[in-house]
């Protein structure tokens, strides 16, 4: 099936039994969490993990890597970061885009960590989301990669896969994350994020999903709808 544009959601959700079967197949075909999984962008500590996750918003990985390298060459702690001016931070992180807004958020995040959290990055979703510039996706990514929690963070690949197949049937990333937290089998929570990302990168591609050879095709709500809509030959 040649899908030239990304289409996601709107075709209904899988039943609980179908959802469990989908995760069984994902487990059998896709790699899970590895022993070398580190914080976002391979950062070595929670503070740099949460800052790098903030920088990654609407930024390609290569640009985020350049921005984090330049920024952490200047400062590696909340106090050291606050010693920099907003302009210095913005100049360092320019490769990742939205650098003026992100520079403001980084300084506010550092101030909040110092004043409200004793310089310790919170380990709960609520605590992380209380930090300036940190939303649900970033909080879940930090929880999963940095704090080794069993949570499925919803990035662009996870959102597409879940709502295209019918694992969820939601219109936003936050609602998708809430649905996964509610409906995913307990045994699939630890590695589910990794299975879904790898599936999205290798099979359920954005513009040309490999539906004809996909091991979820018989369950996939989007594939079923596409076949029904296809003109008779």
What is shown here, in short?
By secondary structure, the protein is an all-alpha fold. It is built from twelve helices and no strands.
CATH architect. name of the largest domain: Orthogonal Bundle
CATH class of the largest domain: Mainly Alpha
Estimated share of beta-strand residues: under 5%
Mean pLDDT: 90
What is the makeup of the main sheet? none
CATH H level of the largest domain: which superfamily? Hypothetical protein, domain 2
Please write the string of helix (H) and strand (E) elements. Answer: HHHHHHHHHHHH
Uncertain segments are: 1-5
Number of strands: 0
The residue fraction in helices comes out at: 40-55%
Estimate the global geometry from the Cα principal axes.
Answer: elongated
Instruction: Provide the domain count.
Output: 2
**Category from helices, strands and their pairing:** mainly alpha
In DSSP terms (H or I, runs of 4 or more residues), the helix count works out at: 12
CATH topology of the largest domain: Endonuclease III, domain 1
Radius of gyration: 19 Å
How far apart the termini lie comes to: 14 Å
What is the topology?
Blueprint: H1 16-29, H2 46-55, H3 61-74, H4 78-82, H5 86-92, H6 99-116, H7 125-129, H8 136-146, H9 156-165, H10 173-183, H11 192-202, H12 221-229
Features:
233 residues, mainly alpha, Endonuclease Iii, domain 2, Endonuclease III, domain 1, 2 domains, 12 helices, 54% helix, disordered N terminus
